[in-house]
């Protein structure tokens, strides 16, 4: 934390002058009323005043919506206002969960939801394996005494900042029928592949593009973990004549494990919510091969002819329950890491 | 400038009582020093006076007005913090004018006051520096200047010299004394250093475990400690405290019912064998040139009875030498079984609980 | 072999000359640079190609355009080709028209005489040409400037609001002890677990009720209070010495003034980190704006891009150029604040 705070000083100074000017003007405006307010209610109640705006925002845009969502999930009809929606009990949930066999989405009443669940699971498994392998490998290489480490770290990190739409469009352009990749394939003597027509390829590229866009972030976390391992531990191991594999297995991995665990859970949480890149890249296609849960919720609530807020609400509540559990796990792990 | 009155002030942190009933009356213009071992509650008492902590019970009056529940910012007091608490992002000038701006003092008046305080504290050349670019002594003076420009009812100092090195501490101590003489405000000063207390105070308040042990002028405390705690706390090296029957002194009417006899090192005098109250063996000799300290063990007494002796000038004594000494009768301090001083004249002792 | 690979995984080698693992590391990194930068570079290069050049297969690396010449007697400029004549000589000829497998061509130096050439004997003369029109046309033909402005407004206003209200809450939660503080903290932690993805429809309802649908406020307000921001700032404010705040109180400063004049200036580094995060979040925001901004006038750049790419006849030359423009500010910010951003993210574990 402190290290991060030291760095920006030079960078922050120039805009700081501008900001300070604006802040001062704001101060002159806000000071008298706030002073009067403090005199009116007393200094002891001022913390509530400071807290109020944030709580209003949280209340309006998080807590209230959670309540409404639960109402949505237990009511039917197409009306947006909860008061105009008839109570249906657990019907929406029953409809979501109504399946002949859970292994076959086709046998479900709400088959798109189950295809979304299946696709999201597939995506999550592959994404987790690929993300951890690549970010760990890159972090290990970047942790070696290499020249221009900052540059390479920046190269891997750069896509993290890009808009998911931009990321998807970049790759869509490369993967299109007459794109760069197919040109390379034909030049190598192969055949053109229609990547977005084949379900397997569509899923592969969905995972690939997500890993491409986000691995820099996880690499950074793992690299920070690696650099926190004291050098003398390695030197001691070297003095003991430890073989490289044992060093990795018995020293690097256990000492990195807390960071690795956090990365695993973070990837998991974000994979379950995946939407942006895949939606722009494949549109959920071909057919329903890459429709994810969030896309199901989005289309059910907004994009379909009939906006079914009840069904979307029920799916959201189910997804929310999963995320809640995962976040609790993450908080538990981060707390354990920091203590 | 104003007086201060505390009545039965108590402060609890949860179940821990830090101040157990403080009664104190401070006159306008007085320099009062709170002294006591760490954890005695002296800083808490200062913060309660400042309004940074709220008293659990009792009341506080400044200038006759009740301020027990008044917020710190409305009490009209200024405080110099142990850490100085200078605003690191503001220049010396801004640090000193911040409070005046808060009070809505006109710009010209602010400039005049800051100028004057800066001159008084030799800070004129540093007004545009940030605190980070100042030495420890200069920062300390800025902290004092920040208080002076306010022209507060009472100045509060929370161990202001403890972050300075020894030499600077002595110099700043003298400056503070001169400052008090010049501006003459009411000042309350917290320290654990008894030299600071002795040199600066008009009156010293000795605190121990949340109670006032004694209030008095520095010499009063030195010459007439009200109890064993004050006797042991004030004075360096410490007063010798001996069991009443250790010395060869007539019990009868002289010692009365005293259990402990106290005698300061300078009042233990080498003498002829025949006049001796005690015979001691020298353990250690500290030659300071102008004076000499002898750390000795009394012979013929049960236990390991240590006696410290101060001799003017230099001494030829060495470790292992035996020395008959006499305790000067007129400087004996007698304490009863409760630890209170036995004196013919009544002396205000502990504050009642 | 495996031993060597494992050495690559484990050792932090000193500067003891080149080991093959060093070579392997740099090779890995070189591939990485190609894979991470290549696609972006390809996008930028492609964005300067003319529509016809974009349709070429296999595509050329650099944006090329066929050279054209004006020939006396022909009103239109004619495309220029290099032609291998039957006698083996090579000439540069302009093409008048193409008939089947033969092309009617003319030498620019002898405009009067036409020559028939089989099409497979000629190759186009090409030169580097940047189709700047891809960038300038959207400014006039579409509401590109409006999308850009919308994105800017959303990013700037939302970031300012975020900084203000989050720092106020962080200040309350770091400096004061008050009844209900732990409940407030719990509430903030609670919101950490609720991504907008799962409350899409109800937030839409709230926004509708507030009358914000199809206005930029619908995008700006819901995400303005962020638990991550509150935590980041609170953590930093906790490191500000309590003495400073008490000194300000003794200096008769009001609580608001302590916040504005003492705590905020001292929290500038943390505020900068949050500002950068917020700019990134807002500039790239997609799902929520997609749900709530239905009218094109209020589209932000990502939404506009998505709408544009979904059209039946995707005009890739414009789309690519607009993608570059969307990417550019982030790239610039990153170039200047790279170390700051990466260390900020490494230290907070969020993005």
From TrEMBL, chain A:
- Transmembrane regions: 48-72, 121-142, 154-174, 204-227, 247-269, 278-298, 310-333
| Cell compartment(s), UniProt | Cell membrane
Domain (ABC transmembrane type-1) spans 117-330
Stated name of the protein: Alpha-1,4-digalacturonate transport system permease protein
Query: Tell me, what's a Pfam family for it?
Result: BPD_transp_1
Q: Which lineage ranks, top first, belong to the organism behind this chain?
A: Bacteria, Pseudomonadati, Pseudomonadota, Alphaproteobacteria, Rhodospirillales
Where the protein is mainly located, per its record?
Answer: membrane
- PROSITE patterns the UniProt entry points to: ABC_TM1 (PS50928)
Q: Give the record's family classification.
A: Belongs to the binding-protein-dependent transport system permease family.
Q: Which domain of life is it from?
A: Bacteria
Q: How does it sit in the membrane?
A: Multi-pass membrane protein
Supply the alphabetized keyword list: Cell membrane, Membrane, Transmembrane, Transmembrane helix, Transport
From TrEMBL, chain B:
**UniProt keyword annotations, A-Z:** ATP-binding, Nucleotide-binding, Sugar transport, Transport
Q: Where is the ABC transporter domain?
A: 4-234
Query: Looking at the Swiss-Prot or TrEMBL record, what is one Pfam family this protein matches?
Result: ABC_tran
PROSITE patterns, A to Z: ABC_TRANSPORTER_1, ABC_TRANSPORTER_2
User: What family is it from?
Assistant: Belongs to the ABC transporter superfamily.
| NCBIfam families on file | PRK11650.1
- Name listed for the protein in its UniProt record: ABC-type sugar transport system ATPase subunit
Source organism: Azospirillum rugosum
UniProtKB/TrEMBL annotation, chain C:
Give a Pfam family name: BPD_transp_1
Main subcellular location of this protein, as a coarse class: membrane
- Give the bilayer topology: Multi-pass membrane protein
Q: List localization entries.
A: Cell membrane
Under the heading PROSITE patterns, the entry gives: ABC_TM1
The ABC transmembrane type-1 domain extends over: 148-337
Q: Which residue windows are coiled coil?
A: none
Could you tell me which InterPro entries the record lists for this protein?
A: MetI-like, MetI-like_sf
**Transmembrane ranges?**
26-45, 152-176, 183-204, 216-237, 258-281, 316-337
Give the range the annotation lists for the signal sequence.
Answer: none
Keyword annotations for this protein, in alphabetical order, are: Cell membrane, Membrane, Transmembrane, Transmembrane helix, Transport
Q: Which family is it part of? A: Belongs to the binding-protein-dependent transport system permease family.
Q: What is this protein called?
A: Alpha-1,4-digalacturonate transport system permease protein
Q: Which organism is it from?
A: Azospirillum rugosum
């Amino acid at each position: 934390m402190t290290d991060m705070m030291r760095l920006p000083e030079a960078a922050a100074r120039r805009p700081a002058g501008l900001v300070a000017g604006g802040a001062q003007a704001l101060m002159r405006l806000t000071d008298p009323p706030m002073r009067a307010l403090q005199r009116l209610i007393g200094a002891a109640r001022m913390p509530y005043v400071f807290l109020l705006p944030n709580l209003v925002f949280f209340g309006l845009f998080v807590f209230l919506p959670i309540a409404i969502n639960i109402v949505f999930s237990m009511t039917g009809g197409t009306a947006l206002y909860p008061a105009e929606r008839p109570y249906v009990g657990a019907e929406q949930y029953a409809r979501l969960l109504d399946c002949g066999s859970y292994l076959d989405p086709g046998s479900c009443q709400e088959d798109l939801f189950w295809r979304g669940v299946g696709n999201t699971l597939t995506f999550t498994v592959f994404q987790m394996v690929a993300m951890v392998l690549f970010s760990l490998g890159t972090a290990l290489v970047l942790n070696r005494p290499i020249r221009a480490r900052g540059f390479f770290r920046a190269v891997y990190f750069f896509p993290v900042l890009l808009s998911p739409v931009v990321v998807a469009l970049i790759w869509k352009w490369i993967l299109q029928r007459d794109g760069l990749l197919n040109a390379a394939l034909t030049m190598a003597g192969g055949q053109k592949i229609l990547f977005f027509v084949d379900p397997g390829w569509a899923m592969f590229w969905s995972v690939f593009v997500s890993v491409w866009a986000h691995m820099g972030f996880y690499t950074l976390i793992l690299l920070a973990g690696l650099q926190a391992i004291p050098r003398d531990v390695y030197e001691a191991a070297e003095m003991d004549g430890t073989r490289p594999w044992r060093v990795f297995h018995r020293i690097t991995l256990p000492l990195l494990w807390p960071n690795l665990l956090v990365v695993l859970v973070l990837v998991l949480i974000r994979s379950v919510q995946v939407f942006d890149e895949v939606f722009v890249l494949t549109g959920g296609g071909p057919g329903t091969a890459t429709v994810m849960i969030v896309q199901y919720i989005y289309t059910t609530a907004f994009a379909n002819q009939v906006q079914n807020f009840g069904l979307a609400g029920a799916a959201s509540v189910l997804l929310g329950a999963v995320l809640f559990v995962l976040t609790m796990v993450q908080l538990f792990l981060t707390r354990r890491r920091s203590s | 400038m104003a007086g201060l009155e505390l009545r039965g002030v108590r402060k609890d942190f949860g179940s821990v009582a830090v101040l157990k009933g403080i009664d104190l009356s401070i006159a306008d213009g007085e320099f009062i020093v709170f002294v006591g071992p760490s954890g005695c509650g002296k800083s808490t008492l200062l913060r309660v006076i400042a309004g940074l902590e709220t008293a659990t019970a009792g009341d506080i009056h400044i200038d006759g007005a009740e301020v027990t529940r008044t917020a710190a910012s409305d009490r009209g007091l200024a405080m110099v913090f142990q850490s100085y608490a200078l605003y690191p992002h503001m220049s010396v000038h801004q640090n000193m004018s911040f409070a005046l701006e808060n009070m809505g003092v006109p710009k010209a008046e602010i400039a005049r006051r800051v100028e004057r305080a800066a001159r008084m504290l030799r800070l004129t050349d540093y007004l545009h520096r940030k605190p980070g670019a100042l030495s420890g002594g200069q920062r300390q003076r800025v902290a004092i200047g920040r208080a002076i420009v306010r022209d507060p009812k009472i100045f509060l100092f929370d161990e202001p010299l403890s972050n300075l090195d020894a030499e600077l501490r002595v110099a700043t101590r003298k400056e503070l004394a001169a400052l008090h003489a010049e501006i003459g405000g009411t000042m309350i000063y917290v320290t654990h250093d008894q030299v600071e207390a002795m040199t600066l105070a008009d009156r010293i308040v000795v605190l121990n475990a949340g109670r006032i042990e004694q209030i008095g002028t520095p010499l009063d405390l030195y010459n007439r400690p009200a109890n064993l705690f004050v006797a042991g706390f004030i004075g360096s090296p410490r007063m010798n405290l001996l069991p009443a029957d250790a010395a060869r002194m007539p019990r009868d009417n002289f010692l009365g019912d005293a259990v402990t006899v106290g005698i300061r090192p300078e009042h233990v005098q080498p003498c002829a064998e025949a006049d001796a109250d005690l015979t001691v063996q020298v353990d250690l000799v500290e030659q300071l040139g102008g004076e000499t300290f002898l750390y000795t063990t009394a012979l013929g007494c049960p236990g390991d009875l240590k006696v410290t002796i101060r001799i003017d000038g230099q001494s030829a004594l060495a470790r292992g030498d035996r020395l008959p000494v006499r305790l000067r009768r007129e400087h004996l301090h007698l304490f009863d079984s409760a630890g209170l001083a036995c004196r013919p004249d009544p002396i205000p002792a502990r504050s009642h609980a | 072999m495996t031993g060597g690979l494992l050495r690559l995984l484990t050792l932090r080698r000193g500067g003891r000359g080149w080991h093959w693992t060093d070579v392997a590391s740099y090779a890995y990194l070189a591939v990485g640079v190609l894979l991470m930068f290549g696609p972006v570079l390809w996008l930028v290069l492609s964005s300067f190609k003319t529509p016809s050049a974009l349709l070429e297969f296999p595509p050329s690396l650099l944006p090329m355009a066929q050279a054209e010449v004006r020939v006396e007697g022909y009103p239109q400029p004619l495309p220029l080709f290099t032609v291998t004549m039957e006698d083996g000589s090579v000439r540069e000829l302009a093409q008048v028209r193409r008939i089947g497998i033969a092309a009617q061509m003319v030498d620019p130096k002898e405009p009067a005489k036409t020559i028939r050439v089989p099409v497979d004997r000629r190759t186009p003369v090409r030169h580097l040409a940047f189709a700047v029109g891809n960038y300038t046309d959207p400014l006039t033909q579409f509401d590109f400037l409006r999308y850009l402005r919308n994105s800017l407004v959303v990013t700037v206003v939302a970031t300012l609001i975020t900084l203000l209200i989050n720092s106020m809450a962080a200040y309350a939660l770091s400096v004061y002890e008050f009844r209900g503080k732990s409940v407030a903290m719990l509430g903030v932690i609670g919101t950490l677990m609720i991504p907008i993805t799962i409350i899409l429809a109800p937030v839409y309802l709230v926004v509708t009720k507030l009358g914000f649908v199809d206005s930029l406020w619908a995008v700006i307000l819901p995400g303005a209070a962020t638990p991550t921001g509150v935590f980041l700032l609170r953590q930093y404010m906790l490191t500000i010495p309590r003495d400073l705040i008490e000194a300000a109180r003794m200096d008769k400063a009001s609580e608001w003034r302590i916040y504005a004049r003492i705590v905020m200036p001292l929290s500038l580094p943390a505020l900068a980190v949050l500002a950068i995060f917020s700019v990134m979040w807002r500039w790239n925001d997609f799902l929520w704006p997609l749900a709530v901004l239905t009218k094109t006038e209020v589209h932000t750049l990502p939404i506009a891009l998505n709408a544009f790419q979904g059209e039946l006849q995707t005009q890739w030359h414009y789309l690519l150029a607009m993608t570059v423009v969307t990417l550019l500010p982030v790239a610039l910010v990153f170039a200047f604040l790279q170390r700051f951003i990466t260390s900020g993210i490494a230290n907070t574990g969020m993005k």
